[in-house]
Structure formats: C-alpha cells, structure tokens
Design goal:
There is one protein chain. By secondary structure, this protein is of the alpha/beta class. The protein has a single domain (12-226), classed as Alpha-Beta Barrel (TIM Barrel), CATH 3.20.20.70. The protein contains 9 helices and 8 strands. It has an 8-stranded parallel β-barrel with strand order 1-2-3-4-5-6-7-8, surrounded by 6 helices. α5 (108-121) runs parallel beside α6 (139-151) and α6 (139-151) crosses α7. The protein starts with 7 loop residues before the first helix and ends with a helix. It comes from Cellulomonas persica. Its EC number is 4.1.2.4.
C-alpha cells in the first residue's frame, strides 16, 4: 500500500519498541528506553508492572503497555481496571488482548463489549489497540473481530501477542485487517517480524505500526539494504 520506500528513520517511527518477556528487569527497561532514543522509535511497549517509567531522556517517546496479556481470558472489568491503572501510571497507549475463544465461538457481540469496557478506561486521546491473535482465527473471524473493534471505538487492530503457538503476523492477515478497517483504524503487525524484509512486507500490506523486539536488527538490515 506504500508508494515510496521507507528509509530507516521513517521505519523506526512506525515501531513500538517492545519488551514483554516475563524475565525482564528494570535495568532491561532502562536499556530499552536508551535504545529507543538511539533508534528513534515511536514508542516503547512494556509490561504494566514497569509503569510509571521515566522517558524524559527521549523527548517525544510514547509509552505503550499491554492489558489482559497474553491470554485475553480475563473478565472485562479486570481488563478495564488494569487499563485504567496503566493510564493513571502514564501509559499513552494500551494494547489489549481479546478473548480469542469468544471469537472462535462466534460471540462477536461479547468481543465488542469486552473491547468497549477497556475503551471506557482508556479515553481519547489515549490510544487503544486490540490484539486479535490473527493466526488463531479464520479469515471470516478476523473480519468479524476487526468490525467489533471498530464498533467498540478502538484506534488500532493488532495481529498478535507474539506468545501464541499458532504464530504471529502474516502478510495475508495484515492485508485482510487493513482492507476491513479501510484506513479508519490503524493496523499493527506484531509477532515474528524480525527482518527488514518482514517489516517492509507488513507495511506494504497495510500495517501502520510495527511491534518489534529486535528493532535494532531490523533497522540495521534496512540500512544495509539501502547502502546507508
């Protein structure tokens, strides 16, 4: 969908520089912030227990976190409480996980209600992204969940947590999600995007944000490919 190649700086500005490993430490988060500043990423994405986090050393850097992560099998009021706490602790963006089982059962009204509960706890201009675990869904389910997310007032739909055994982002899923939301919502490709070629393919398919844990390698690969 892009019409011009992305340079490394422009690509970095699409990236949520991500650290969600259970064994992550505060020292790791400090290093993440420093690396985000060096690479020029849009944001960092960290677990909610690390909030609040000091990003004053990197002017303009946004802070994202997760909610109901990684299973999504939490009561809606628990997700909403977690999201509200994260916003109070300074998060600019919240990436919530849907109840994938509800989607598999065709309970899309319940999926929409779950998202709406979190949306109420993440008022604009805070950003709400909805993780749908696209690799675990059929195409029809992806479309229905994206429509539920839009109806509930989400800002983005996002492919994956990166923790599901079915896999992460695919070009097919990103393209389908982008076609479904038609530019009205953003599309975040996350999970298994490890190379510059992966990242560019996701953007070409319609991703407007990338969730990367190996951002430095992706940017370095793009620099190498472009002869920087």
């Amino acid at each position: 969908m892009t019409t011009a190649p992305l340079d490394p700086a422009a690509l970095a500005q699409l990236v949520d520089h991500t650290l969600l490993k259970p064994e992550a430490t505060r020292a790791d988060v400090d290093a993440l912030v420093a690396e985000a500043g060096r690479l020029g990423t849009f944001s960092i994405c960290i677990s909610p227990s690390f909030l609040p986090v000091d990003v004053s050393s990197v002017p303009g850097l946004k802070v994202a976190t997760v909610c109901g992560f990684p299973s999504g099998k939490h009561h809606s009021e628990v997700k909403a409480a977690e999201a509200a706490r994260s916003v109070a602790d300074g998060a600019d963006e919240v990436d919530m996980v849907i109840d994938v089982g509800a989607a598999k059962e065709g309970r899309f009204d319940d999926v929409q209600a779950d998202i709406a509960a979190v949306r109420a706890a993440v008022p604009a201009p805070k950003v709400l992204k909805v993780i749908i675990e696209s690799a675990a869904l059929t195409d029809d389910e992806i479309v229905a969940v994206c429509r539920a997310a839009e109806a509930a007032g989400a800002d983005f739909v996002k492919t994956s947590t990166g923790f599901h055994p079915s896999g992460g982002a695919t070009v097919h899923a990103v393209r389908l999600m982008a076609q479904t939301v038609g530019g009205r919502l953003g599309v975040k490709a996350s999970g298994g995007v490890r190379t510059a070629a992966d990242a560019l393919a996701m953007v070409e398919a319609g991703a407007t944000r990338l969730g990367l844990s190996g951002t430095a390698a992706v940017v370095a690969g793009l620099e190498a490919d472009a002869g920087y």
